[in-house]
Specification:
alpha/beta, Lyase, Ornithine Decarboxylase, Chain A, domain 1, TIM Barrel
Amino acid sequence: MNSRNMRVIRTDLLRDNMRKIRDSVSTDAKIMAVVKADGYGHGAAETAHAALEGGAEYLAVASVAEGSQLRRSGIKAPVLVLGAVTSQDVREGVENGLIQTVCSPEMVRLCESAAAIVGKQTEVHIKVDTGMGRIGVRNMAEMKAVTDEIEKSPHVRLTGAFTHFSDADDGEDGMAYTEMQHARFLELTHRLPDGILRHCSNSAAIHRRPDYAMDMVRAGISLYGYPPVPENPLGLKPCMRWSAKISYIKTMPEGEYISYGRTYRTPERKRIATITCGYADGYHRAAGPEAEVLIRGKRAKVVGRICMDQMLADITDIPEAKEEDEVVLIGSDGSEQITAEDIAGWAGTISYEILLSVGSRVERVFDDCGADREGKSDE
């Protein structure tokens, strides 16, 4: 593979991570794999297939368009659209058999009207706002208004209710708030019919509060190998490896400036590598002052400001490095490893954003270690 900039997605590790999550959750609870935002940058369809093979029974996306994409890829599993239903795409959601989210009588009526036109019944889950402040019913009066509307809508079937924890990955204060949210969710859903799926646990709650599993849990960032808890109790592994190449090497004398803004000046004679990756490829410019890359199994310090298409690294202590060598941005090289969490720390953000930032011009290859999809590109 000769790509100047490439990410390899290990679908076998996605599958293994899901199995570990499945084994950690009560057998009475179903598993929903969250594959929104193109599978957190890993590829929605391939991630969905791997998650289902690993034990997931449901999938979650952010929008109808994302759910429709999964259907076009041949996925038949139940798919929940986490965002609130809208008039623009409700019919498409019904036609593709997606579970849509409602949190007002008006949304129920949208689903009923579209389902009646299509001539089929549609499933809905009620979103409950227990403290996130985005979408969802907030009290019993709002809940009753929604369920009353569902009861008089012959084409709408209620199959679930859910909430989202805003602070389950935080410390003691965060868990106290999560406990409040859980109690509020129980209060607002205890009158719902038997048999519906109640779910509230995100990745953090899966690890920290297994007793909150209820009927289903939603595995998001943990599926991709980045559990939002410091201890990583299940031994989940990152599934994305991102690499670039050295395009040019030069020796710079002492006192020379490098890159935009003259933020870096060589303190002594330095050997500098130009690397085929920049912020247009999704590498965060803000990470520059602290960033490191891996070359021939060794760490090299990024120097100067990251450019749109290129970045530079000090390879003075890696004399064996040469042009065309691989540069690992995320992943392992020998005994060294750089993770999305490392880059997030350097850039002052979170691992989610790093994974999602990898640009479309970075070639994506799926590696299943010998299975049929090995080496399949998304191009």
